[in-house]
Each structure stands twice: as C-alpha cells, then as structure tokens.
Amino acid sequence: MEYINNLPSMDLMRSEEMIFTQLIIPVETAHRAVSYLGQLGLLQFRDLNEDKSPFQRTFVNQVKRCAEMSRKLRFLKDQIHKAGIISSHPASQPDIELEELESRLAEHEHELIEMNTNSEKLQQTYNELLEFKMVLQKAGDFLVPSGNHSAVQETELDENVCINNDYVDTESLLEQQPEPSNQSGVKFVSGIICKSKVLSFERILFRTTRGNMLFNQAPADDQIMDPASNEMVENTIFVVFFSGEQARKKILKICEAFGANCYPVPEETTKRRQITREVLSRLSELETTLDAGLRHRDTALTSISFQLSRWTNMVRREKAIYDTLNMLNFDVTKKCLVGEGWCPTFAKTKIQEALQRATFDSNSQVGIIFHVMDSVELPPTYFRTNHFTNAYQEIVDAYGVAKYQEANPAVYAVVTFPFLFAVMFGDWGHGICLLLGALFLLAREKKFGSQKLGSFMEMLFGGRYVLLLMSLFSIYCGLIYNEFFSVPFHIFGSSAYNCRDATCSDAHTVGLIKDRDTYPFGVDPSWRGSRSELPFLNSLKMKMSILFGLAQMNLGIILSYFNARYFNNSLDIKYQFVPQMIFLNSLFGYLSLLIIIKWCTGSQADLYHVMIYMFLSPFEDLGDNKLFWGQGRFQGRTYGVLGTSDMYNDEEPDSARHPREEEFNFSEVFVHQMIHAIEFILGAVSNTASYLRLWALSLAHSELSTVFYEKVLLLAWGYNNIIIRLVGLAVFAFATSFILLMMETLSAFLHALRLHWVEFQNKFYSGDGYKFRPFSFAALTDDED
C-alpha cells in the first residue's frame, strides 16, 4: 500500500487541485486587474449578483456602450464584405482609448450611411435616365410609320445641323411636358416593366379596355440593377395605344399596380432626338459621379479594414471585462469590489503576480487582497490537455464531466477506444486508407487550424489524432486477421497447412492437413475460402470479444477501488468493490479462464454445457467437457462464492458516490442498495453480451469486404472487356470508399463509443461534475458580441 501511495500523480488521471479564492480590489484598479486576469485565463469568477437582472448591475451602461460599438463594427464589416474588399492584417498602430474608438466608429458609421444614401439616390436617378433612354429609342420605332423611314433619314442631317447650331440657346426639353397630339384622337402611354410581368400586364390591359387598345413591346437592350436585391433585371419596353381619357386613367393605374415606370415620349422626331442627347449627356455625368463616389467609399472601407480586426478584439475584450465586473460586489465603503472564484493550485502564484502588476500599473496606493477561503461547494473540474489528448477528453466529457478529483476515463480511452474500434474494423488495407486521411489532416494542421471550417470538417479535424490511432490499430488488427481488402497474404511465412496427397485438387477447400509449425502471426491465410472458415472465425472473434470485455470491465471496477481509496471511503471497498470483483470474475472470469485453457489444450469441450450445468448441477461429472483436474470441485466453490457475493451486495451500506447527508434511514438505504445490487448483477450479464458487438461488426465488415471483392471486382475482371473492367473497378472503389470507409467507420466509432460510455464508465464514473470555465480573452468568440 505504501508503494501505491508513493506513486507520482498523473496529470490526466485526476483533475487539477482547485482552491476557492476571494479578491478585494480597489475601484481604480478593478478594470486593469480583470484585464490582466483575462490575459492569464486561470481564474473562474463566481457571480455574486445572481439575484439581479442585467439592467440592475453596476456597469450596465458600459456594457451597453460596448454592445453599441459591436453593432457599429458589424455594420462596418458587412459594408466591407458587400464591397468585396479583402480584410487585411491589422496594421501596427498605437492603442487607442475606448472613448476615442467610440467617436471614430460613430464618425465612420455616419460617413458610410451618408455615402450609401447619396449613392442610392444617384443610382436611382441613373436607372431612371437609363430606362428613359431605352424607352425613347424603342418607342420611337413604334411611333415612326414604316413608309416614312426614308423621309426621316433625309431630314436627320438638317435637324442635326440645327440642333448643333442652336443647342446652347434651346430650352432643355427634359424640363418640358410634351403635349400629346389629338389630331387623330389616338393617344399612347410608353414605359418599361419587368420581363416576368409582361404577360399578366398585357392580359389585364386587354380586359380592362375591353380590347380597345394596341400593345407593342420590345426587349430592353441593357439590364438594370435592382437597388433592393442588387441583381441585374431584364426589362421590356412597351407602348400602349388607346383612345379616350378614361382609358388613359385606367392604364396609368394598372402601370402603377404592376410597378411599371411610365415615361413621356414626344411624337416629333426632332424633340425625341434632342431629349435623347440630353439624357445621354446626363448619364455620362452620373457615371462619372458614381465612379468617383464608389472609389471614395472603397478607399474609406479599405482604411477601416486595416483596423477592423484590432477594434473588434478590443471592443470584445472591453465588453467581457465589464461583464465580469458585473459579477463582483461593492463592499460597505463603496471603494472596493469584492469577487470570488476558483483557480488551480498551480496558478496561485501567477494570479498574485498579475494582481501586483495591475496595482503597480494603476499607480494605486492600496494593493489588491488575494486570499484562499474554504468552500462547501464542489469545485469545478479542470484537466490540462494538449492537441493529442484533447479529443479523447472531449469524447469522455460528451457523456458527462468528471466529478472533482474523480478518476478520468480519458487516460485509458487513449488506447482502448481506438483498439476496440480496430477490433471491429480490422483490415490493414482499409486502415492504410484511414492513415492517409489522418496524415493529410496532420500535414495541413497549421493551415486548417488558422481558418474557419465547416461543421463536419471541423469535427474531423478536431479528431485527427483519434483517427491516426484508429488507423494504426486497424492496420495492426488487420494484420492479425490477415485481411487486405478481404484478401489474405503470406506476409509472415508459409501456411501451416498443405495438400494431403497428389489427388488433392483444390487446396483451399478440401484435403488440407497441418504439416508445419503454426503460422507465426495472426490468422493462417489457408483458412480463407475453406469450408470451416466461418465457424473458425466466428468462434475466434466471439471468444476474443468476451475476453476484451471482461478485461475492460475489470479495469472499470479496479478504478472504482482507486476512487474509494482516494476519497478515503473504506465502505465502498468492502461492500462494493470486493463483491463486484467476486461476482464478475466468478462467472465471466471463470468463462474466460475456460476459453484460454481450451485454446491452449485444443480441447473439444462444449463451454455452453459447462456454464449451464455449473448452475444446474455444479458437482456433476463433466465427462468429455472436463478441461482441467478438479474442475467440478472448483465450480462448486465458485457457485458458493457467487451466493456469498450476492448477500454482501444486498446488504451494502451507503457508498461514497451518494454521501449520507440526512438522518440514517435503514429501509431507504436497504432498498437503494438492493436495487443497486440487482442492477449490477443484471448489468454484468448484459454488458458482457454487449461486448459481442465486437464479434458481430468485425464479421460484418469482413463479409461486406469479401462480397465487394469477389462479386464486383473479380466478377468484372473475369470479362475480357476493358469497359466492364473499368466499371467494375469504379463500383468497387465507390463501395469501398462510401460504405466500408465512411459508413463502417462511423458505425464502428459509435459502437466503440457505446462500449466506453455504458459498459466501461458505469463501473466507476459518476460524471456529475462541471467544467472549469475561467475568464479568458483567448476563449472569446464572435458569438460573444
């Protein structure tokens, strides 16, 4: 016992020792002290204002200011993203105060909102002029009679000369309202409408005017940007000819309902040309103005992008500091803040140094008081992990966080989890494929670690070291099973079996005898394809599953012993650990012993018969099922021990896992421990049977791989046709990748997870603790905003 007590402590075996501390901080030092503690990230503050709402706390105004600055930063980030500007690395500039940053953000937001408003107005004017230009061009073609095209072309030069000479003195026709001609009594309305609405628009016009109208349309030459969605929209130019003022009012209302923009087009060709020139001139000016405004906006956003990341981190930190200060209370003098929290024992010196540095940097005359207190609360659980062990710790924590100082299953899961996975997945060909994937993730570790990944890729990257060990153990188990994509190889020498005589026609099915030493490593390749392959592998893997299950369950019970020793609870050792070990090993330990003896001696004994009649007739002569001398007497004693262990288990008093806090009640304790005893006895049987999933999934994986190899690849390779062979190879590769390497990997992973969570951890692991969550700037994410 002294040797065990003197063993050095393991970092991951038990959580870090925690201490409960109290801080008394002067008001003038509080902000800087909390900031330094956030940089250190080793103190978990306790909320002393749980009874207060967020709006009743001391620093609520500062939190609101930070929240408003976060909103402005998100607005700036969205504007940079919409402009397509790539965020640059933060420039090295001196730090600024929060008040100065607040004023800068307000200026940038106001400037950008003003620029966006002006740009939208200019863009709307530009769109209207562009639509007017297209309406003038297309509507002019409808208004000019087909026989007058030559006359129009003859007068074009004269009109151009007149317009060029008198353009400066002529009043702008855009400002004039064209007077419709009433010579023939036919009027028209021209405009532009979205292409998708044209059919409905024409149908409604026809029904409203009862067919007394003429509808002409033509596709617009240019697409126009929709300011609401920033997408290019296809439009159609239309001209509606009608007669009567009532028809005109109806048509204008329908245009308004369909969102069609109507533009006045003069009938005279000269006026249309002059208006077109004025529109083109204004469009050119607007394009120049829009380009200049866009360049100015991009320049402003580019300068902001250099500092956006630094500003965001600064605001996020300030908000976290004030949220933490809101967890502290003022003392009676209102001059100091009082805080409480948990920290690891090893961090005590570092925290004191950070507090001293905060006092010195704040030029405070009063130091910060830091002292350790006693607490009746259960401390938080904290394990120091690295990139390798973190994934295994997360697997355990997904079931439940370890109670403070409880034995940590993650220490053993580092080996047992990938090994049990490999027992179900064993194929060294598939293991090599997984290994290549794991090596790819490890080679890109720095690149993937610095960028934001999708949910699936992030999960896969987080478990890269788990995948690495799973692949290595799969290769190891695959070599034991002697399976490479279900194909056996003579890697470690020749087979121990050979053909009986010269008449042996098929050495893989009949007539094999053992003429050499046993195959040195793993399964003999001659078993593949033989008549007894399935019975042999079934027996091997089933017995192997029971041995592995018993070993892991015994490990769990042994860990419960170390938990009881650590918490100084001798009752758990006497009345829980000892009966559980006796019961489990008297039944399934004895079965495992018989399996090993049968393997070593080559006996043909029926283990089913032995185990059944151990209870029915424990002292009966076993006959051919006898495996060792004195087996009958041994079974009788084992049966007696089982009865004794049941009695102890039923009378088991209260345990350390459920400490006695109320007055002792014999009937309540008796019922509770009787239920616990029945649960363990039935659970021992069901848990042992649950480990047979190792046999079932291993066999299923092997048979699936064999089917794909023989019924797909070999069948396709039997044809002397390159196309059929390529198709067969493609189907085999697809089935191997998506079924065997993805679905089977996920299935084996989940079953290994179940074996650890239920069959292993329920023997010693309560998992009712809570994580150590220190105040740390490194743990802040975008969600904190």
UniProtKB/TrEMBL annotation:
It is a multi-pass membrane protein. The keyword Cell membrane does not apply. It is found in: Membrane. GO terms for biological process: vacuolar acidification. Pfam families: V_ATPase_I (PF01496). Residues 98-125 form a coiled coil. InterPro entries: V-ATPase_116kDa_su, V-type_ATPase_116kDa_su_euka. It comes from the Eukaryota. Essential component of the vacuolar proton pump (V-ATPase), a multimeric enzyme that catalyzes the translocation of protons across the membranes. Required for assembly and activity of the V-ATPase. Belongs to the V-ATPase 116 kDa subunit family. This is V-type proton ATPase subunit a. The lineage of its organism: Eukaryota, Viridiplantae, Streptophyta, Embryophyta, Tracheophyta.
